[in-house]
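Summary of Year 1 activities. Much of the first year was spent building the evaluation harness for sequence design. The harness presents a backbone, in tokenized form, and records the residue chosen at every position. We chose the following record to illustrate the format because it has been used consistently in internal testing since the harness was completed.
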């Protein structure tokens, strides 16, 4: 089905704008609180090497595949496959990508709402009143159990995303990415400067970067491969949608490398900002959400200008959440605009409302609906498990197979080779797309589903 909105499709205003927007999509909450923890617990620099290799053999091939599908079609994920493979069922892959984005946004915005709430708590001094880690933990549990409050922050965050996306690709997503991404880097550098100058900060840096190859086993390698795939916003239609706004002058290979480098760089900088302070203040690193909402606020507030540092951290976390969430919302908006012929204003409002409503069960999952579980998980856990463990990897495998084996070889070659300086890069890329990337993702998927 062709675009039916009757308007010319927008494009990115510049290559830098596209890279910052796409990197913003990849850089999310997981970069700030999950990646550094996994890095430290899984062998430090040894894990980092495996992760970078995984980005090269999985991330770059699939990201490039999604971009060429988007630019080659100029449409959303559903319309892209329908145009490139007419009268075939490949459009279902695009549909699954849109659905995956909807589900992820629905629960992702709940955690983003937590970050927004803790930004205000830091700014108004509520966290400063906490005496110890036990108090901080109890306060977080009480907050997430307060369902009306959690739902309110979830809806406020979705409202922020609606505001950005409603302004369009150049006027909204690109313009705000050019503001938010440099701000994110600036905040990270400020936090790093304070963190590494603390007495005892060296223990935190050792935790992150001391190579421990004894920790490298099959499980850790699979963890690195999975982290590389999930961290780069692959398999959820984002890079297809963002790729559909690319002009013919943008080089896919160099753009992919820049996005992956920025994504990995922010994760490392976050670790350097967080863990020296954690160790210097005598805390042990806690996993994911526990570190972010229970330990770190207490750490920052024990430092000089702690309220400022804590507020800066949660501003950083909120920015990372916004840049990721708007990319997920844009997938839905692009679908509604292309396939249903809706104007952007209507598409943004309806899709944001749909994601917000779908996210309410996840918001209630730690409070009013905490008693409801399925397979031992609440709504939040179910949504996360369904997308991360199944929909994303399956989508990545099918996208690789489509570009590598089913789409016209001449068309794929033409799209990828635009502005490409070294032709051999294409050969390496296409065979990675055909064999290496889908096989690696399949191994990760099998390990997750069957616990090999």
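For this record, the design step produced the sequence shown next.
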């Amino acid at each position: 089905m062709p675009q039916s909105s009757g308007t010319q499709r927008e494009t990115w205003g510049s290559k830098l704008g596209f890279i910052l927007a796409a990197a913003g999509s990849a850089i999310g909450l997981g970069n700030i609180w999950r990646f550094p923890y996994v890095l430290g617990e899984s062998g430090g620099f040894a894990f980092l090497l495996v992760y970078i290799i995984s980005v090269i053999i999985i991330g770059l091939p699939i990201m490039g595949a999604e971009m060429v599908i988007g630019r080659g079609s100029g449409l959303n994920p559903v319309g892209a496959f329908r145009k490139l493979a007419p009268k075939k069922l490949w459009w279902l892959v695009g549909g699954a990508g849109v659905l995956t984005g909807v589900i992820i946004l629905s629960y992702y915005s709940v955690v983003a709402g937590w970050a927004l709430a803790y930004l205000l708590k830091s700014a108004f001094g509520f966290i400063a009143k906490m005496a110890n880690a036990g108090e901080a933990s109890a306060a977080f549990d009480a907050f997430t159990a307060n369902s009306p409050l959690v739902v309110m922050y979830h809806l406020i965050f979705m409202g922020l995303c609606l505001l950005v996306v409603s302004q369009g690709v150049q006027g909204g997503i690109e313009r705000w990415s050019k503001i938010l991404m440099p701000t994110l880097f600036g905040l990270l550098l400020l936090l790093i400067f304070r963190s590494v100058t603390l007495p005892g900060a060296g223990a935190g840096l050792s935790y992150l970067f001391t190579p421990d190859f004894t920790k490298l086993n099959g499980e850790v390698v699979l963890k690195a491969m999975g982290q590389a795939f999930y961290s780069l916003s692959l398999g959820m239609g984002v890079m297809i949608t963002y790729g559909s706004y690319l002009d013919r002058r943008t080089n896919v290979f160099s753009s992919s490398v820049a996005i992956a480098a920025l994504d990995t760089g922010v994760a490392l900088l976050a670790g350097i900002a967080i863990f020296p302070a954690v160790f210097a203040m005598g805390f042990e690193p806690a996993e994911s959400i526990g570190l972010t909402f229970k330990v770190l606020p207490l750490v920052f507030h024990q430092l000089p200008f702690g309220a400022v540092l804590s507020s800066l951290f949660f501003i950083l976390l909120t920015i990372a959440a916004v840049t990721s969430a708007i990319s997920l919302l844009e997938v839905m908006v692009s679908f509604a605009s292309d396939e249903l012929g809706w104007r952007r204003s209507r598409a943004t409002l309806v899709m944001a409302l749909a994601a917000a409503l779908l996210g309410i069960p996840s918001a209630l999952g730690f409070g009013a609906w905490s008693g409801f579980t399925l397979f031992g998980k609440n709504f939040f856990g179910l949504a996360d498990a369904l997308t991360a463990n199944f929909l994303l990897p399956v989508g990545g495998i099918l996208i690789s197979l489509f570009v590598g084996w089913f789409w016209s070889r001449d068309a794929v070659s033409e799209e990828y080779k635009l502005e490409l300086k070294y032709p051999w890069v294409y050969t390496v890329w296409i065979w990675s797309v055909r064999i290496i990337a889908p096989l690696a993702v399949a191994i990760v998927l099998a390990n997750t589903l069957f616990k090999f």
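Residues 119 and 314 are 5 Å apart (CA to CA). Quantitative recovery figures across the full test set are reported in Table 2.
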